[in-house]
């Protein structure tokens, strides 16, 4: 499973982690740098935990993905998966690079619009859209709604008629293809909750063509996340191509294929998914269909752009065993290791720490859960109280999955570009945690 890496190989060294992350470097005086900014300076000024995002990395990776598509002779609209990182600054940067948005909630839709993404470049996906969310999408005029079930199709039809609109819809088909990724992030198997069963898709498409208020334009397929090889894509798209041809033979128009996303990154030493191979899979299976193509990347663009900065609270010795390094960041900040057994590289911010002989240690947070563990038996520099570290590749499914569990305020966020950096979300105050809470009058002794 791609999000539970093979740990039989030695942990990557500081040098090896830096070698595959060009946005990071180690200055002998200033320590770990993101672009031209010393991350210790950020931590000195605003404290930790703090998320850092590299604007240049977002731009570079968005451009590489676009270039891969055009290089394969494809005209593809790219819709960034907002669920991977929904900060307005991130969305605004990617919108300026020509990307649209793939959203899965009304909140994400409004965020994308607020960031300057036009409704005509927004695709609304998701297995459980509420009536209010669908009304919002219809009213705003999004590019298309990806329909996940026969029941949802009927609801959209009724709401569109109510609004006096005709809505473009694509059927999200479940191709029953194994994405070869973690079980919790696969979405294209028959027993997953997503999409219309493959064998039922043609009949439902023809049904959509007869319904008022909706205009079926094509098919969508998204088979999972953190996909590192092209083979699962080719298998899925081959099935979609068969469906497109069968639909046309049945007399219906198909003008769009939404290829989904899921391209993975290299967290440890597994390498990352190739945009060029992704484009090749699309071209090989769908290139001759004369359809408008779309993709929905998220992690591949945003993941490598982010770090989470943290400080060692204490070093807890264990007789005869590896020490526990207790950080001020926790599972409420970065949930992925607890949720998926995910591996994130860890680099010290100090240039002195970075060159020390590594030792085996357990890296944990202060939350009152045994699952609040970032790494066990990880080879790390001998981190002492007050040392600072950066969790790598935390720009996707990091801050967006944060919570305030244990009454821990949300961490600050900064954006780095060149030698500049700015706070893009101040650290939440403790008082803000209960600012919107009230107690009934009778609990206060009121009559």
Automatic annotation (TrEMBL):
Catalysed reactions, semicolon-separated: meso-2,6-diaminopimelate + H(+) = L-lysine + CO2
Keywords on record: Amino-acid biosynthesis, Decarboxylase, Lyase, Lysine biosynthesis, Pyridoxal phosphate
N6-(pyridoxal phosphate)lysine modifications at: 83
EC number from the UniProt entry: 4.1.1.20
Pathway the protein takes part in: Amino-acid biosynthesis; L-lysine biosynthesis via DAP pathway; L-lysine from DL-2,6-diaminopimelate: step 1/1
Sequence positions that bind pyridoxal 5'-phosphate: 262, 296-299, 397
Active-site residues (renumbered): 368
Cofactor: pyridoxal 5'-phosphate
MF GO annotations: diaminopimelate decarboxylase activity; pyridoxal phosphate binding
EC top class, as a word: lyase
Domain spans labelled Orn/DAP/Arg decarboxylase 2 N-terminal: 64-302
Similarity comment: Belongs to the Orn/Lys/Arg decarboxylase class-II family. LysA subfamily.
Main function: Specifically catalyzes the decarboxylation of meso-diaminopimelate (meso-DAP) to L-lysine.
Subunit record text: Homodimer.
Full protein name: Diaminopimelate decarboxylase
High-level lineage: Bacteria, Pseudomonadati, Pseudomonadota, Alphaproteobacteria, Acetobacterales
């Amino acid at each position: 499973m791609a999000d539970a890496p093979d740990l039989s190989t030695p942990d990557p060294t500081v040098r090896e982690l830096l070698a595959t992350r060009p946005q990071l470097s180690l200055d002998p005086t200033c320590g770990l740098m993101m672009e031209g900014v010393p991350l210790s300076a950020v931590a000195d000024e605003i404290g930790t935990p703090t998320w850092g995002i590299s604007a240049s990395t977002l731009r570079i990776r968005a451009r590489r993905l676009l270039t891969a598509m055009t290089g394969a002779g494809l005209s593809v609209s790219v819709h960034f998966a907002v669920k991977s990182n929904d900060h307005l600054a991130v969305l605004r940067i990617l919108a300026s690079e020509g990307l649209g948005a793939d959203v899965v909630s009304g909140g994400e839709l409004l965020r994308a619009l607020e960031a300057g993404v036009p409704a005509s470049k927004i695709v609304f996906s998701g297995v459980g859209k509420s009536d209010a969310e669908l009304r919002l999408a219809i009213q705003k005029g999004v590019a298309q709604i990806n329909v996940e079930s026969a029941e949802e199709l009927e609801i959209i039809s009724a709401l569109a008629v109510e609004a006096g609109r005709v809505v473009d819809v694509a059927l999200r088909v479940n191709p029953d293809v194994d994405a070869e990724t973690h079980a919790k992030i696969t979405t294209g198997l028959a027993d997953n909750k997503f999409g219309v069963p493959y064998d039922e898709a043609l009949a439902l498409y023809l049904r959509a063509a007869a319904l008022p208020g909706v205009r079926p334009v094509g098919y969508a397929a998204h088979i999972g996340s953190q996909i590192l090889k092209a083979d699962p894509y080719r298998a899925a798209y081959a099935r979609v191509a068969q469906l497109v041809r069968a639909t046309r033979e049945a007399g219906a128009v198909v003008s769009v294929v939404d290829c989904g996303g899921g391209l993975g990154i290299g967290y440890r030493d597994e390498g990352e998914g190739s945009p060029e191979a992704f484009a090749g899979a699309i071209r090989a299976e769908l290139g001759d269909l004369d359809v408008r193509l779309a993709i929905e990347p998220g992690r591949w663009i945003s993941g490598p752009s982010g770090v989470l900065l943290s400080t060692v609270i204490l070093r807890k010795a264990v007789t005869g065993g590896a020490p526990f390094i207790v950080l001020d960041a926790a599972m409420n900040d970065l949930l992925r290791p607890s949720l998926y057994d995910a591996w994130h590289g860890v680099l010290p911010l100090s240039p002195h720490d970075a060159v020390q002989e590594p030792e085996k240690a357990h890296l944990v947070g202060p939350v009152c859960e045994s699952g609040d563990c970032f790494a066990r038996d990880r080879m790390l520099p001998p981190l002492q109280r007050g040392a600072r570290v950066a969790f790598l590749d935390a720009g996707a499914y990091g801050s967006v999955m944060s919570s305030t569990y244990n009454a821990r305020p949300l961490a600050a966020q900064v954006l780095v570009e060149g030698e500049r950096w700015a706070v893009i979300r101040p650290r939440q105050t403790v008082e803000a945690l209960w600012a919107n809470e009230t107690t009934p009058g009778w609990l206060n002794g009121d009559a």
